[in-house]
Amino acid sequence: MYNFSYQKVSSIADAVDAIQKAEDGKFVAGGQTMLPTMKHRLASPSDVIDLGGIDELKGISVDGDTVTIGAMTTHAEVAASSDVQGAIPALANLAGNIGDPAVRNRGTLGGSIANNDPAADYPAAVIGLGATVKTNKREISGDEFFTGMFETALEDDEVITAVLFPKADASAYMKFENPASRYAIVGVFVASSGGAVKVGVTGATACAHRGMRLEEALNGNFTADAVDGVEIPIEKMNSDIHASAEYRAHLVKVMTKRAVEACS
Amino acid sequence: MAENGVGASVRRKEDYRFLTGKGSYTDDLNVVGQTHAYFVRSPHAHATINSIDTAAAAAADGVVAVLTGDDLAADGIGPLICGVNVTSDDGEPHRAPVHSALAQGKVNYVGDHVAVVIAETLAEAKDAAEKVEVDYGILPAVTDTATAADDDQQQIHEVAPNNQCYNWPFGDKAAVDAAFESAHKVSSLDLVNNRMVTNPMEPRAAAGEYNSGTEEITLHLTTQNPHVHRLVMSAFNQLAPEHKLRVVGPDVGGGFGVKIFRVLRRVGCRLGLP
Amino acid sequence: MYSEELVVGWACRKVNRPVKWTSDRTEAFLADAHGRDHVAHAEMAMDKNGKFLAMRVNTTANLGAYLSTFATMVPSYLYAFLLAGQYSTPLIYSEVKAVFTNTAPVDAARGAGRPEATFLLERLVDVCAEDMGLDPAEIRRRNFIPVDAFPYQTPVVQCYDSGDYNAALDKALALADYEGFAGRAEEAKSRGKCRGIGLSSYVEACGIAPSAAVGQLGAGVGLWESAQVRFNPTGNVQVFTGTHSHGQGHETTFAQLVTEQLGVPIENIEVIHGDTSKTQFGMGTYGSRSLAVGGVAIAKACEKLIEKGKKIAAHALEAAEGDIEFADGNFAIAGTDKAMNIAEVAFNAYVPHSYPEGLEPGFDENAFFDPMNFSFPAGTHICEVEVDPDTGVVEIVKYSAVDDFGKLINPMIVEGQVHGGIVHGVGQALLEGCQYDSDGQLITASYMDYAMPRADNVPSFDVDYAPTNPPHNPLGVKGCGEAGAIGAPPAVINAISNALGIKHIDMPATPENVWRAAQTATS
Q1: Cβ proximity of A58 and A72 under 8 Å
Q2: What pTM does this model have?
Q3: Is the Cβ pair A254, C515 closer than 8 Å?
Q4: Is there a contact between C379 and C401 (Cβ–Cβ < 8 Å)?
Q5: CATH value of B34-143+158-170 in 3.40.50.300, 3.40.1080.10, 3.90.1170.50, 3.20.20.80
Q6: C454 touches chain B (CB under 8 A)
Q7: Is the peptide bond before C151 cis (omega within 30 degrees of 0)?
Q8: Which of A133, B26, C152, C217 has a C-alpha 20 to 30 A away from that of B11?
Q9: Is there a single domain that holds both residue A243 and residue A192?
Q10: Which C residues 12-41 touch B at CB under 8 Å?
């Protein structure tokens, strides 16, 4: 790790102020990706601005059909929340299967989606549930938030404050884990609300995306069998030592079918 | 049977200290005046070393020394040895390239040891290691087991034509071939025994201390056999006479073969014995 | 040995300061000695009954960039000499080509050569069974070395000490409910799963090793082991061993040997190892040798103490030495209740106010033991898997191991060694694949890409034993530390091959590879 200066701020305004003044500043939430990267000397921010002291970024609330989760809420808190378990059980399950207990107790929702690892779990839920990402500047729809590998719509001084998840009639997340890292080789979040189906796919491509072909097949026929005829193009699929593009494309269908089955 | 004797599933005596954090592993040892070593390793699988410039690293904060293979050779420290001879089908011993503890003129795998930086803190050693300038001449790499000995492969060691260490036949080929000729059925199989990284829980470590009064080196190591480590370091590497070298394997967190030093082909020769 | 160790020893004198180096995990991946890495072609010739007539094996072994300490021996003597396995195959020809590559040195890794040989042989035997239309258990039975043939001279140097391979197989088949497998497979099919069962009947050579044997093979020193058993004047005992414990539990097992033999309470026994300034020269711990060789040295030192103690007790009790019997920690005059505890004897030895004339004071003996043969543990492991054909995921649903380790000193520790070994083998079979790219960059250099086995990759194991008595080992023990890693890989792969009805799948049988194999099998 290279030297850097560290500041812990207690308000969003202070966070924005600090990053604007920094030469090459970075916000840190739970630090579960950022700190290992820094330790391996693969990142060397001049300033690390810790969002952990900003109370307004924490907490979970349910208001009507919307579950609002503060950006600095940890995966463990989401997994254990009776509000989330009651409103969107698939989301609580997803959070409870991220990483290991240490990661779940430090890692946060905001940190995860801001980092936008192509194999992260939360982006699939944000897209699959049609969530809205709320920042200190604006609201961004889930579909528009994830723009590329480790890239998002966020500006440098923009802070995620919360994510608003609409409840679904039924939803499920199925993850095919990398045997080594246990990240998603493919993860599929399926949600059905009022007859409309949304599918969020992670792990398969450069970043999480909507499974439009799958949605098309499932709208009007929300059964696992409906997935069989869907052609998943392999051109954009990731390919690495753990899974080829062809295998990933196949797993997208298998995980989707299993998620649909889990919804019923 | 004695109570707690043969056949009794006695709880492990050592577990109390391990489970209560009282184990003492090499990295747990800290002494006054301790420095930290960090190795500059080759980023290339196969390359000549045209030059190493250690000046900037040596001048960096906290650096005590930056040492290379030339320093090692100048001090007469011998190369690492292989302990067992296998006679190849040409009647010659297996081909054994020289293996210096710090590379001399060439690196042969990613992670090969190019230089060592010794500094007051580990962070300073790492910072300085980045300042060691190595000019490499990159060569093609050989990585595939099945084709490594093919004629068109890059040569790695001069002493080992076709990258072959040995070809070792064993058994009565004519008799076996004859049995195959007359067999009712022959079954065959091609297979791979996959390469593994052993991964003991405790990574390797070494902590050395020199007493200039007694001229004794004490070396704590993650070792499976401290006496043999000492013998080899004395007899082959000329590190120190055996009675001036103490090797301690304190608590060690798994070995699985990764932490062995054993079976010495040439100890007798080195000691002038038959 | 490694560069870093030598460099640290040299550097601390050069800079005249203490120097410490600790590998981080990335360095460990890059520069620890790796294991295995063979490609091989194997053939078996059979008669019409499936009896093995001859075997031919051609192997290329990757030794990496330099020769590590043990590198040359692993794919040669520790590999080819194990190719007979449990079978009476009369003729074996092996050719091993060892090559250099631009990769980390390859050396011993749990089992060292023997897992490679066992994987090759036990896979080939299953292919033979398939080709002959025989059950895998039946073809093994037809070729086992019979129980009355021991000691058994194989065509590949080794002379097996003892074994009853049918006994272990029978017990394993019962433990695994082999008979009931068809029903379980049928039930799994109804859930869309392919269930398979795989056997592995391994033998290994450990307890390394007779000095004369390894000397002939090209090693320059002996592989005996040493022990010193020292009573302190207050009656407690320090046991110095030349072996080294790094997880094996020697401090307990060796203390059990001493308490059994000398009757000293176990809490009064301390086992000391691992420091050249404390212990006598010893050869260390590898090749499952510590108990089979080092344990015997301890027992022999204890015997010397008993002999000396009889002289001391006879003098103190005013009896003839021949009338002194030793049992349960007491030296007694036979047929009487006159006795001295061994602690009192030790005190007498250090405070020899009234002491046998000409006898040396002190109660402290050492012994060396050089075995006459390797030790040959053997057994049958049976793995049962369920394959999800849609994803290629393999679940090990049942694993049964029946091993012959001779006499067990501490069954709990032995079982722990078996568990650890099996998990190591399952790791090789399903998860661990070290890969370099064509430029020589290690692309599996962290736990993000190199999959280690975890608790949820394995079921609870069913472990039992079918011991035989190795005649050359005074304690009747064999080694147990490597057996699981040797027996498990072919059991797992045989089970997967069986589940999918395929000839072979290479390790690690990753989900994608299994999925592809399942596609081929069903198409």
Answers
A1: yes
A2: 0.96
A3: no
A4: yes
A5: 3.90.1170.50
A6: no
A7: yes
A8: B26
A9: yes
A10: 12-25, 27-41
